Amino acid sequence: MDCELEETVKLLLKKAGDSNSFIRQDADAALGSMVHHCTPSRCLHALLAGGIKNCTAQHLADLVTKIGAARIVSGGKDIAGHLIPAICKLAQDASPEARFFGRQMLLFLSAEPKFNKVLDNNLATRELAAIKKIVNTVMTKGINNEPIDPRSARGRRPQMGNETQRGNETQRGSSLNREPVNKTNRWTQTVADKNHYIEQLSDLMGSKDFKVRIQGINQIVADSQNNPKVIISNIHLVFDAISARLTESNSKVNLHALMVLPEIICVLEENMAQVVNTLVPAIVDNHLNSKTNTIYCAAVRAIDALISNLDNTHLLQIFCNKAMFLNGKAKADLIDKVAAIVTNIGYRKPQMMKQRVLPLLWHLLGISTHSSSIHNLCNALYNEMGSELTECAMSQPLKIRQTLNKILSSLH
């Protein structure tokens, strides 16, 4: 798809301005899917080549979050040289929506120490003063307080009777995004108040507008990178909110939450041990059997990020429990993950293997013998336990002992 991206995006941007609201919505959804699934650099060039239009703003903001501030600021002319002028143009646009997302991107990038130098290198002298004034304003006062509802801003017809409610909700829900997130400003001081932070995050994550909920997810990503102590001090409440987004009915929100999880997990590392019993079921129960390949792959990446970034002993029990009762490819995937964990920690946690993994193995051998995942688990356990595995099996029914011996004979 990357090869045809530029022409496709030009057509989608044209359709995003169509008079038919259904066509506009479908075009917007296609652009959002592109941002989440295609190569970021290709997406960036395709969006910029299509022209800086009102409908480009939020997709560009999502892409900036995905690429990351550090990469953009250090990306040289190939990234910053094209992106910074476009963002600055949006930040001064006549449209309130475009201006909002332009300033949101400036705020996101301003946390990087080299940001001012990047502005100097990529803007004309006559533009610098105005842009630096805007940056200073959003860092000290937040993004302007005009309510932004992306649906109504793009001409989508709101439901009768809900206009005032939705406008108030969006203004209230967007307050977290309007505040600075870099480490030295007043927002960091404000979020020391746990209740205040969670209240505002809840407004975003509980909004009726799915795009505002996605903004809430992006805010957690930004906070985890720029001020992880805020997330860690509120970790249970934050991941309750993320788990709720993983289990809601909107697949766009599900996918976005899944895709940014590895980024959050890589920052929080061992702190994630506190929430695996909430997070893992939200991922595997809802998405590891998904028929949508992008959602399934994103779920696998999230699980792999947990395995890579925290002590696997924290994951073993929940993985074994889920592998015992799930069905389909999710069951096979989790059995393989358990086998990998056995290889990672079996030598230092032999008792844990016996207490947590062997009950799973006996259960699996009692119901099936043809799964390659079960063979992998038997092999991993035998490599760690040797003949002790067959000794432990002596307490099991004859059928299970015979099945285990047959599998081990075929493996060795």
TrEMBL record:
Domain TOG: 179-412
Gene Ontology CC, one term: cilium
GO biological process: microtubule cytoskeleton organization
Record-linked SUPFAM superfamilies: ARM repeat
A GO molecular-function annotation: microtubule binding
Record InterPro entries: ARM-like, ARM-type_fold, TOG
Annotated protein name in UniProt: TOG domain-containing protein
Spans annotated as Disordered: 143-188
Residue ranges with Polar residues bias: 161-188
Source domain of life: Eukaryota
